[in-house]
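Exercise 7b. Backbone tokens:
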């Protein structure tokens, strides 16, 4: 039988395989028309969770060169137009995407003239470039129309699809749909909801069943 230290090495390898990611919260409708913050930096594998806090808003991917118009791609995200029914935190709606590269991701709100009014944002703005959130907002203000995408898509579950959200974020037991925005009515308390809707990023450590399977195989080999 292999030594205990060898088994411990296999376990540490498993832990390393479950890499950390960060959840970036972006709110809209928090007594303002704008996304807050409207410019963030995220690593590949991170998540961006949009939290709609009042009235009607949407999140649609676009290009810097075509503000207020949807990106024509099967991978582009769009939340649909989401209307918050009340003012309680349990009424808030969420739409979450995963960042799959560090390339700039531009987005806007297709409701009414929100895009022209400054409801736009960017994930990973270009560095040392004239393509800034300020110039993008200015270009959006001059757009002739605000186009609503035809397909709702792109909402994802934070962490591994087989993991429950309560094991990932201790302050919430919310579940996340795979193709539409979700309510956070199942938050455990008002204070927990406040934590959830903070604009601060949260670093999380998920557990992946596939990595667990690999660990069991490693332990079996060591014996």
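Sequence design result:
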């Amino acid at each position: 039988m292999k030594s205990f230290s060898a088994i411990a090495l296999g376990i540490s390898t498993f832990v390393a395989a479950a890499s950390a990611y960060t959840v970036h919260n972006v709110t809209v409708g928090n007594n303002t028309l704008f996304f807050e913050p409207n410019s963030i930096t995220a690593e590949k594998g991170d998540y961006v969770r949009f939290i709609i806090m009042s009235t009607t808003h949407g999140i649609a991917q676009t290009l810097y060169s075509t503000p207020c118009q949807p990106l024509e791609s099967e991978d582009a995200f769009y939340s649909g137009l989401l209307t918050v029914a009340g003012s309680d935190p349990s009424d808030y709606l969420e739409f979450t995407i995963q960042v799959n590269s560090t390339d700039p991701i531009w987005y806007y709100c297709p409701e009414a003239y929100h895009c022209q009014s400054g409801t736009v944002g960017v994930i990973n703005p270009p560095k040392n470039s004239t393509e800034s959130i300020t110039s993008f907002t200015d270009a959006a203000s001059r757009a002739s129309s605000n186009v609503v995408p035809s397909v709702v898509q792109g909402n994802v579950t934070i962490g591994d699809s087989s993991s429950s959200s309560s094991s990932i974020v201790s302050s919430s037991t919310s579940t996340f749909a795979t193709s539409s925005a979700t309510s956070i009515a199942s938050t455990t308390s008002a204070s927990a909801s406040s934590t959830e809707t903070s604009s601060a990023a949260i670093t999380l450590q998920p557990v992946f069943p596939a990595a667990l399977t690999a660990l069991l195989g490693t332990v079996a080999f060591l014996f």
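Instructor comment: The mean pLDDT is 76. The CA atoms of residues 43 and 145 lie 32 Å apart.
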